Here is the input.
Amino acid sequence: MDKRLIVSVIYLKIKKMDILSILGISAGVGAILLGIVLDGGDINSLINVPALIIVFGGTFGATLLQFPPGIFVRSIKMLSWVLIPKEMNLSEQIDKIIFWSYLARKEGLLGLENALPNEKDPFTKKGLQLLIDGNDPEAIREILDMDMYSKENMGLQAASLYEAMGGYAPTFGILGAVMGLIHVMQNLTNPGLLGQGIATAFVATIYGVGSANLIFLPIANKLKNHVLALTQAREMLAEGIISIADGENPRNIKLKLSGYLHETYKD
Here is the structure.
């Protein structure tokens, strides 16, 4: 592969990344490690394999028990949204809808058939196809609303998996702490084994609380925000398609849809 092409692909991937996610995890982990160093501690003291197995193994197992395979697979696929969110150029989408509106006025709804093959998003294709078929605006709204909120519900279910992990991790951290203390109590007469048990007890708590509040819960909330933003984008698309079906003036459609633009997702 051409080196320039590779560089271009890497550049596009970096450009699409959510910088706040990278800064957030870097700042969180960095603050913890820096605090340990400034306090005179040793970063290697945070490495404890038994605590790692107890907390993350237990959390993973409990999560597998709670969620069906479909939601689990969907949540893994959505994880990439944390660093590379789904593209939502609402301004571009509005321009496309206005183009459809002018085209429908000029050539009729059947004139939109040429635009259908260019659409890759299933929701957009469905809405455009319903419009081309000449369906009643209320019928289009009902079908698209059902599809839209079904997708939203599936997305929120997938995001809730990480929320559940954020609930289980501290609990298994406490479980690891108790198991470490049990190990200490069993070896009170053997001072050489006390350190390992105490280390497991405290490090397990750090793993549980730290992973929940620094990784799992923030990921869950970020994915929920993305799901809701996608729903809003689909609402805008549906509203535009229904407006075309109602025969509204393209300028009025643009004014109506411009209300969906806001700084967070405006390019």
Q: What stands out?
A: The chain has nine helices and no strands. Residues 5-15, 263-267 have pLDDT under 50 and may be disordered.
